[in-house]
Amino acid sequence: MKAIKLAWLELRRFRGPLRRFVPLVLILVPLLYGAMYLWSNWDPYGRLNRVPVAVVNSDRPVDSRGEHINAGEQFVQQLKATDMFEWNFVDAAEARRGLVHGRYYLTIEVPPDFSAKLATTADHKPQRPAVRIVKNDANGFIVGIMADTAQTELQNQINAAAHVTYARSLYGDLGQAREKLRLSSEATKQLVQGSDLSKQGTDALAKGLNGVRDGTGQLSRGVQDISDATAQLDQRLSTISNFTAERLPGAVNALVNASNVAANSLNTIKTTTGFLGQRAGEGRGAVEELGQKHPELAQDPVYQRALNNARKLADAAGTADKDAHRALTTAQDANRQALSLQDSMGPLQNQVRAITAPVDTLRSRAAEMSGGANGITSGLNTLAASSGVLHTGAGQLNDGAKNLQGLVDGTLEKIPPTNPTEVSHAADVLGSPTEIRTDNLNPAHVYGRGLAPFFFAIALWVFGLFAYLLLKPVNLRALADRVGALTIAVAGFLPAAVLGVLGGLALYAAVDFGLGLDPEHVWWTTGLLSLAAVAFVAIDHFLRTAFGAIGGLLSLVLLIVQLTACGGLYPMETAPVPFQAVHPFLPMSYLVDGLRVTISGGVTEHLLRDVAVLAGFVVVFLALTTVAVQRQRSWTLGRLHPQIEF
């Protein structure tokens, strides 16, 4: 109970116009800190649509397998349909400038070969296109982490565009495959027609073979006829042999005898006709001599008749003698020929036996064999014609088979590879058809390095807040004396400023050597920390000088506001509007921005602006402190007995 009474007495100590608000302010401190911090950071990921992001579409559409592929434009249209970020569709140069100067927190670049690589999905070795995301930690480290968090959604958007492209490519391939199959069906019909012709050719070939068979039968019959003819030849050769051996020699001998008799008879006739001619000539001479001796007889008709008759008789006897001489010569020639024939009978018989009859028989059977050969030739002709039809059908069958092979090969090209390695690669690419490659203009690398500017700013502000709990902001003796207000202000400012600079440098040394901060610009970092320590001390010095203990409370409230509105964690675009409104007027905003440049790298223009603004805070608040010191030269009862004092 005693403890409760003592506690109650402590609370009763806060009486008076201002003291009574002390417990209320203490009650509101957690509310201010917790509520404002939570309000500022309640749903930053839900406000990503306020974060400006540049999108560069450098993709070049391609035509593949009869389909026009423009995956980059498809991706852009899908981004436009979402409000993940505040999309700004610009060219590469503007995106680069905006990222460097902080107008964009990151850029998304669709490469020129995005569609071309997506078009390779049906190939044996599909390629995975990559979209490049470029960040700049100089604009904030957390926004990069937020981009990484949103990367999954971006990946889904890119994959959706890729899947649309795949679907078009796939359906295009299916359409081509269907057309190929239709052509294959026509080729198959040609193959069937060719097969029908082959069947007809085969039938014709069978008929031709039947003709050959018939010809062979005829040849067999011809051989039989040759056998029969051989028998007849043997019989006829016997008859001829008998005739030439028995009857022909007698007939030739008779002919020789008859010609000899005729020649002898004609010789006798020739002798007689010669004698008669001689006598007729003598009779004609005697008549003519009678006429010469008796000229008176020349005119006698009887004499004339006798003379004419004698002359005619002499002429007829001469003609008869000549005829008899020719007949004798002919008979003598016939006799010689008969004798010659008689002499040639022996060889003739031998020739007849050896040659004549077999040759005749052979010629006859050869004629029969020729008929059989003609039958074979006719059959072969039919077979050749059938072979031509068969050749034509085989040619069509071959053409149809070749077309079918070409179509099948073309269709096989459309089929994904079956090699286990290639299938694994294709499955990997199709499962995640695209990838996101992240780059960073000024990388912070680690979480602590990225958030160091924010925590450095907190540390320096807390130093200023606590410095004047231990140090007096104004030397009261100097205030009561005739020392100038500026001198008094500077005298109260310098100790904390120097300690603040030393404290900031100690903090930097511990973080750099202990944790490996390794800033891009060491001297700029230490200089900016020193300047910020001086500026923060100047502000706290003014608050403490002007408002006393309440100034410390205001410094705490200002710390809370700056924690939420300086942009040290999330982009200001994700904060509520009131925090965005006060952001440009807070000194911690410029320290955080400047340290990002000195630690991670970035645009020097930002750093120079931040230095100028912090230096301006120093000058302005030193001036305000001077004014406050000047006003404090007038002593009041409230100042002699302050209601609230720490």
Q: Could you walk me through the main structural features you see in this protein, from its secondary elements to its overall organization?
A:
This protein has 646 residues and is mainly alpha-helical. The chain folds into three domains: 129 residues, abc type-2 transporter like fold (3-Layer(aba) Sandwich), CATH 3.40.1710.10; 240 residues, Methyl-accepting chemotaxis protein (Helix Hairpins), CATH 1.10.287.950; 190 residues, no CATH class. Helix content is 76%, strand content 5%. α9 runs parallel beside α12. The relative contact order is 0.11. It is a multi-pass membrane protein. GO terms for molecular function: ABC-type transporter activity. Pfam families: ABC2_membrane_3.
How would you briefly describe this protein structure?
This protein has 646 residues and is mostly helical. The chain has helices at 2-12, 22-40, 71-80, 92-101, 114-118, 141-293, 301-414, 420-431, 447-470, 476-480, 485-515, 522-547, 549-565, 577-582, 587-600, 604-631, 637-640; strands spanning 52-57, 62-64, 67-69, 86-89, 106-110, 130-135, 435-440.
